[in-house]
Each structure stands twice: as structure tokens, then as C-alpha cells.
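Can't attach files on this board, so I'm pasting raw text. These are the components:
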Amino acid sequence: MEAYLAAMLVFAGIYALMALGLNVIWGLTGMVNLGLVGFFAVGAYASALLTKYWLWPMPLGWAAAGLAAALAGAVMAVIVARLRGDYLAIVTLGFAEVVRLVAANEVWLTNGTDGISGIPGPWRGAVSPQEFNLIFLGLVWTAVLVAFVLLARLSHAPFGRVLRAVREDEEVAAVAGKPVLWFKVRAFCLGAAVLGVAGALYAHYNAYIAPEGFAPLLTIYIVLALTAGGVGAMRGAVLGALLLLLLLEGTRFVAQEIPGVTPVQKAALREAIIAVSLILLLRFRPQGLIPERTRTRATP
Amino acid sequence: MTRFRITRRAALLGATGAVTTFAIGGRAFGQAAPVVFGALPPLSGAGGPYGPAMLRAIQGVVEEANAAGGIRGRPIRVVAEDDQTNPDAGVRGARKLIDVDRVTALMGTWASAVTTAVAPLCWENRIPLFTVSGADSITLLPHQGFIFRTQPNSRLQIATGADFLIRQGARRIFHLAAQSPFAQSSQEVLTEKFRAVQGGAVAGYIVYERDKTAFRSEVDQVLRARVDTVFLNGYLPDVTILLRELFRAGFEGRRFTPAYAVNQTTFQTLPNEVTNGVMTWQPSPDVNSGAFRRLQTRFGNVEVDPYSAQTHDHATLAILAAAQAGDASGVAIRDHVRRIASGSGEVVDNVTDGLRLINAGRAVNFDGASGPLDFDERGDIQGTKFRYERAENGRFVLMEIT
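---
Top answer:
C-alpha cells for the assembled complex are below.
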């Protein structure tokens, strides 16, 4: 049981990192990004390839993952500079699918749909599986803490205020003399870098990545986690990720205890419980569990 | 006011949920007696059509074994989780089965990506993984003997298909392959096989993008190569188009394709004159075996798919291996699978007879619904039967099972 809880908290930490990354792009800057799993995949592949085939040390691999994803984010931000709302959502969704298809077809680089297995993990093999779990648990949540503190500070700094201004009204921000595109590019880079690092950690924890693992389902999960936690607030992102995992995993045990339910019904029931909980949450608390607190509405 | 009430209620609900979660988890530790096996079939996602039957086959075997007294008096329990045909969900499901339910064997993973993702967890926790996934790479993992695969790998499938074509008289063959993990390895096997026969050659090889809607240039190249056989190594949509275009271009040689690339939909889409003579092949369960017939009866005389036949064998192998070892730990099961799957013991085709003989101290050799179940040193299946069919007037006619 302890090993299971530790493993699930590792997953929760990775989801929390992803939610934090998305929060910079979507929550603060207001750019809908349904391609986050694409950046996650870029990070995962970058670190996996560098540490497995070029034998880079793992911390360097993770840094490279962040950098590669940030670069992809910058390119993406320039491409979608003039798009907003639904159009932006579709283009970013397309980006993630392109990354997945490239990973599936460029066999020489990514080993195609067979995926990359045997990705090294810190002290994997030298310690027992449970110790490895605990090491990774510490690692992932340290990363979450660092990302959380930095991003929370950033969102209250002048930089964060400009991002919120861009989110509320681009023209007003531009008229106030802010270089909107430059701010958007930087926000995209920053968010993508966090997503990339999350991808690297995922790859090294699971020891295996394949294109199928980067399907849009994961994007939907993280978007829902952020919505549930509270878009815009960094604490909301972390809470939402924890809540998402509690829903994903807790439903296993709840559905199992209902008498007379077959495993097939249980699988369907789980998905129904997850869907209904999120619908209820959005119906009764659309601002999320921890709404963003800004001074926008305060009296002067 | 309203908002306050809802928050409190939500908090209460969440807390109750969390507490129940732990309470339920704790109960699994209370009972040490039963032997617990984990099933991880795809109950939703792309494998959703297969998973439920695969699970039913496992449960059927376990019920039968429990009725026969279990593993040396210990009852057997199956805990199933849905892998959602997704590696991420598969890993979380496997974690739960291994760490919470303490299963000593995992069975029934379907998608290759799920199997590859789950495999390290199995060998690190020293429990065997029985799978139906076909990717060559799976048994090449450093799995220390913990992986048993009942599906022939793609190299074996292509080699068997090539032998069949050569028996049919094919000498000059054209290989048209969709972009996939097995295109390149198929080509290597074909070249090797055709080089070995007098006058044999793979006269052409093209890898095409499967989402295309026209294949004129590919078909032109097939015609130019003057081959007697074309091997359409693709999927349903692209093979359908290729068959039509080959017919229009007047190609008269053999057309050979995997069974999953031509089915009833093809017959509805294409006129019979186009499909007549197309040959297909697929790994076949041993339909004449006692084990297969019993499974068919249990399923209510409906068609049994190859995957359910295989998971039926997974459960039987795990149970008999544990009984033979007198120990239901993962390592004991791994070490005894080969002893009960092959060898000179008395041949049995069901778990009840197997348990009876093992309890009487006799050696057994289990022949399953999917085949005779002989594993090589990498955990790959040997000696699977293959089924060859030819399309005739909108239906398939059996040519041979070998």
C-alpha cells in the first residue's frame, strides 16, 4: 500500500507540474493551450534520448528537456501570435498531434511506436523499487515546490501583472506601452519549460515512453485539474492535480466496493464518477476550489 | 451563505471518500490465505472490444480451479483493473494490483505500449507478466524471464507467411508496407526467406504513408516489377484502396495480406471480382484442441477470439505453475511455467485435470486453447498454428491450418 501511495503521489506531482506550466500560459496570459502534452512529449523525448544514448548525466538531461520545450514554446508562440480563443485551441491541439506523429514515424530518432525503454532513473537498480519510489517522490515534489514558489512570485511581480493585463485586454496592454507579443512569447516559453521538465521526470520515472502515451487524453486531464483547482492561482493548480489523482485512483476502490459490479461495469462506472464530479464542480464552483485573488476589483 | 454550505458539504464528501479509500485498501491485507492474480485487460479504449472477453476467460479458469480445490487448498482470487489501452493508465493500474492487492502474477495486457510500460514494474517486483502483445521488442527487454508471450511475434508471423507463399509457388514478390514498427523487420525476414529458394527474390519494397487516398505510383511500380505475388502489409483502409487499384491496373498475380487488413467491411466496399482470390493469414487458436472447445462451450458457443484463448491459457499456466511449485510467489511461478507447459508429462487440456495430476505428484504438460504453449528462452511462444484463408464471392474459404 505504501509503495502504491508513493507512486501515486509521484504521478500527482508530475500532474501538478503540468498544471503549473499550463497555468502560466492559460491561467495568467489567457492563451488556451490544448497542446500541452506536446511540450510534455518534447521534454520527455529530449531527456530520454540524451541520457540513454548520449549518456548525459540526468540533471543535464532534465535541463535540456526544459530548454527544448521552451524553444518549441517560443516557436509556437510566434506562430499563434495572432490567434485567440477557439482558433488558438485548435492550432495547439494540432501541435501536440504533430509531435506525436513525428515521434511515431521518425523511427531513426525515436524508435517509432515501439517507444524508448530502459530510460535510466536516479539509482534505479541500485536501490529497492520502494526506495526508488521514495527518492523520486522527493525529487518530484521538490521540483513542484521550486516551480510553485518561483511562479507564484512571478505572478505577483510586475511581469505577472502585465500577463494578466494581456489576458484581460490585449489592446489596452498594448496602448499602455507593453510589447504584447514579447510578453506572450516569454510566458509560452516559461510554461512550456515547466511542462518539458515534467515530461523528463515522467520519462525517467516510468523508464519507458512511447507516442501512445502522449495522447490528448492527458491534456484533457490537466486542463480539468487546473479548472477544478482554480485557473490563475498557483495553489489552485497544485490542489487541482491532487484532486484529479484522488478522483482517478479513488474511484477504483469506491467502484470495487459496490456489490454486484463486474470489472467491465466498474471501468465504465469509474469514468462516469470522474465525469460527474467534474461537472458538479464546474456547476457549483466555476471559479475553481481556490479562485485567483487579484487586486483588479479592489477599490483604488 | 449558499456557497459556504456547498463547500462544507464538498469537504465532508471528500473526507469521507478519502477515509473509505484507505479503509478499503487496508482490508486487502487482512486475508493472507487466497492466492491473488491480477488481470489488466483493455476494458475501454482501442482494445475495448477485446478486453471483456479476455477477462471472462480468465475468470472462468479461476472458477474452475477453485471448484477443483484451488492451489494446494488455497483459493484463487482475480482482481481486474482497466488499462484503458493507455500506457499511463496501465502503469497506474499495475501499481495498484502489485502494491495494494499484492498479486503474484499479472496477465492479459493487450497493447504493446502498455505491456512495455508495465513490464519493468513486473520484473522489479519479481512477478511474471503474461501478455498477448505482438511487438518484437517486448521479449528483448531485460526481463529476467518474467515475461511470457502467447502471441507469436511479428518476425515469426512474417516468416510463417513467407513459407506459405513459397509453398504456393511464389518466387518474385513485391512488398508494399504501411509505415509501422514492423515494416522494416518484415522486409528483412522476407528477403532472407526468398533468397533461400531457387529463383526467389523480393523484387520491390515500398513503405507508404497509410493515410493516403490514392496509390497509383505504388501500383505502377508493382506492375513494372513483373512479380507473381504482391504482399500488402498494411491496414484495412489502405489495403482496401490498394486492392481496388491493383484490380483496375489489371494485376493478375497473388495478393497476400494479414487477416486484420481484409474483413467483412472490405467485401461490402469492393465488388467480389476485386476481392476474389485474396489470401490472408493469421495466428490461429488451436480450434481442434479440447481446451478451445471447452472455452467455446463456456462462452455459449459464440466465436472465441484469439486473445481470449490466450488469456485462458495465461490463467491456467499461472495456476498450474503455482501448484507444481507448491508456492504461489512470482518467482516460483516463473520458474515452473516451462515445466508444466512443455516436457514429457501427461498431456492435459484443462485446469481441473492438471491440478488433480499435480496433487497426485505426476508430471503434466498443458496444451492450451491457443496452442501447445512451448516457450523459448526469451519467453516467446513456439509452434503456434496459423490459419490461411482465401476470399471467394464475399466470404472467406479456409485453405489450411498449419
